[in-house]
Task: structure prediction
Amino acid sequence: MTEPRGDTTPEWEVFCRSAESEPLSHVGSVSAPTEEVAREQAESLFGWTAHTLWLCRADDVARFTARDLGAESDAAANADAETAGGESR
Result:
């Protein structure tokens, strides 16, 4: 069993858009007690390349693994398509 970490400082996920026309990308995370401190840290680390920075508390982010997203069923569908002579997705 994994023990919880001793530091209870909230973690913030940082998303960046390098140009207005670019998609939003996850670039990392920071630990900070408040949104203001998280913004300062994110700006210091990632602001030099950012057109826009987005922050959200890590506790508010839903995370899914490839298995959660159905990667196994996609792989099976691709194998079936290849066996039948079709193209894989």
